[in-house]
Amino acid sequence: MGLQSGRPVVLDVDTGVDDALALLLAVNSPDLDLRGVTCVAGNTGLEPVVQNTLRVLDVAGAPLDLPVAAGARRPLLDPPHIAEPAATQTAEHVHGADGLADLGLPESTRPLDRRPAVQLLRDLLLGSDTPVTLVPLAPMTNIALLLRTYPEVQEKIERIVLMGGAVNGGNVTAAAEFNVFADPEAAAVVFGADVPITMYGLDVFYSVRVSETEATAMAASDVPSARLAGQLLLFRMNGELGSAEIGDAGAVAAVIAPDGLTTEALPVRVELEGRYTRGCTVVDRRAESDKDWDPHRGFPAPVLDVALGVDAIRYAKLFVETVS
């Protein structure tokens, strides 16, 4: 099944504000065929993530037979220095107490697929006639479990376009970006997959922005998707900058218009052990001659297409026009 005849995609989300923006873009884009959505704990707990996802899909007008499945409630491993990871690795302070800007959207009656997220992902991939693009916008626990449980699905993945990581420092810590920090072992598994991967990280994440004027107009729109997007963007502005980033929706825009992203194929390792650097994505931009001195050279790092620049105006326009 699918909404359109465009590129087949599956989104993996921890629906807070920017995941919601990504869902609105994916559902409404004629260039994408959204095959399914899987949920994982991240910005908030799994149950509110699932409800937020269903609510956003209602507003977006997604068909009721679009499968949505619940996945992992916690990371693959609990970090030893965090006593209660489920309570401390969420981000309600960014996304609101309900994870969705506290807008009070009505509860959804949309059915939840009975399959676990990993099973749904397997079925969607192996059942597709053409390779599918996976778009993880959350901690990558579901995707890591998929790759470990059903490695044969890699043949049916066209590309993984993920929101996570950074070249130049983190946001949840000085070294680590939230999605990777929340489950670094899962990120390491995904980065090592035998499929092409685009890392849409913090280096471009904050660049694609919608102005306060545009967001205000969207919030007053008669189009439900545009109205919700405008409300979410205004919440993100918090009266400070006069614009707000579309965040995770930028990674979806990169699937729609990949030529708007400047990438470089670079080795990337995930730091798993450092007390202050756990979850850091170590991107190696050294010249080849410098790498000859690397004591880890015998253990090559996965090479990802790392986003270093973005046509921010183009992606912002794409987002506004598509959801409006």
What does this protein structure show overall?
The protein has 324 residues and is an alpha/beta fold. The chain has one domain: Ribonucleoside hydrolase-like (Inosine-uridine Nucleoside N-ribohydrolase, Chain A, Alpha-Beta Complex). The chain has 14 helices and eleven strands. It has helices at 17-28, 46-60, 85-88, 92-95, 117-126, 141-149, 178-182, 184-191, 202-205, 212-219, 224-237, 249-256, 288-291, 312-323; strands at residues 7-13, 32-39, 68-70, 132-136, 157-163, 197-200, 209-211, 243-245, 261-270, 281-283, 303-310. The strands form two sheets. A nine-stranded mixed β-sheet has the order 3-2-1-4-5-6-11-9-10, sandwiched between helices. Strand 4, helix 6 and strand 5 (157-163) form a beta-alpha-beta unit. Helix 5 crosses helix 6 (141-149) and helix 12 (249-256) packs across helix 14 (312-323). The longest helix has 15 residues, at 46-60. 51% of the residues are buried. The model is unreliable at 83-88 (pLDDT under 50).
- What's the total helix number? 14
**CATH architecture descriptor:** Alpha-Beta Complex
Order of helices and strands: EHEHEHHHEHEHHEHEHHEHEEHEH
Name the overall outline: globular
Reported by name, the CATH topology is: Inosine-uridine Nucleoside N-ribohydrolase, Chain A
CATH superfamily: Ribonucleoside hydrolase-like
Which structural class matches the secondary elements?
alpha/beta
Number of domains: 1
Average predicted local confidence, pLDDT: 92
Proportion in β-strands: 15-25%
CATH class equals: Alpha Beta
Rg over CA atoms: 18 Å
Strand order of the largest sheet: 3-2-1-4-5-6-11-9-10
Proportion of residues in helical segments: 25-40%
End-to-end distance, in Å? Answer: 24 Å
Largest sheet: 9 strands, mixed
Beta strands, count: 11
Low-confidence stretches: 83-88
